[in-house]
Amino acid sequence: MAAAGDGEAAPPQQQELAPAAETTAGGSMIAKLEEQWRKTKEHAETYPYVWGSYILVYGGLGAYLAWRWSKLRRTEDRVRVLQERLRKLAAAEESQAASASGSTAPTPSPTQQPAAGPAKPASGP
Fold first, then answer.
1. Are 2 and 8 in contact (CB under 8 A)?
2. To bridge 14 with a disulfide, which of 10, 73, 78, 84 should be the other Cys (CB 3.0-4.6 Å)?
């Protein structure tokens, strides 16, 4: 390592930071994005296995979520079809009941039994 004032250039780490600071400080948004892209690309080239695992994990997660989403959409479509069939069936039954009750006298509804629970056993002496 060189001491300050030896006439040697600054360490490489400081030289790398200077152009990046100029680009991001006074640069436009596109320049910032290009710089971030360059850093990301360099990192991906340096650590390919890390990025491969990212792709594998997040790609698998994305594929699973897409599969579950499509399955959910198919289920929702089936439920909508069944609901529509049920609505049509209920409307047909109501119209039949209305036409049948219009020709005959309405029948009284059966009396409802009280909603008491099971009978309590008689208490002993």
1. yes
2. 10
Q: How many CB atoms lie within 10 A of CB 15?
A: 10
State which amino acid sits at residue 71.
K
Cβ neighbours of residue 70 under 8 Å, at least 6 residues apart?
none
- 53: tokens are 């695992």
Structure tokens at 125: 């002496």
Question: Contact at 8 Å (CB) between 32 and 23?
Answer: yes
Tokens for 46, please give them.
């340096």
- Taking residue 34's Cβ as centre, other Cβ atoms within 10 Å add up to 13
3 state SS of 115: coil
d(CA 88, CA 81): 11
Amino acid at 1: M
